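Continuing from the previous page...

OK, I double-checked the sequence for YqjK-like protein against my notes and this is the correct one:
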Amino acid sequence: MADSSNKMTKRKAELLVQSALLREKLAVEALSLFQMPDIVSKGLGFLSGFNKIKKNPLVVAPVILTLLALRPRRIISWAVSATVLFKTWRRFKPVLSFVLGFLARRKK
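Thanks. Re-ran it with the corrected sequence; updated structure tokens here:
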């Protein structure tokens, strides 16, 4: 009788540990599910912007007319120039920040 009681006590302890682990796992999964709607709501908010444009196309008309007036070639050349400028800045930023930091320390 004592032997079966001992086994049942051990089994109960094992089940309590397993239950605690499963509850913790469930809590983590529930937390991740609560965070997912934030991403979904951002996506829906982005799509609602397109719905606003559909309802009021006059908002987009000035942008389209400006792009047509500037000619696509000019826009493409501006985009290429901006890309080259950005890449150049990214490449030389560490050097420039080092030189400017050196000059600032030298003035003090």
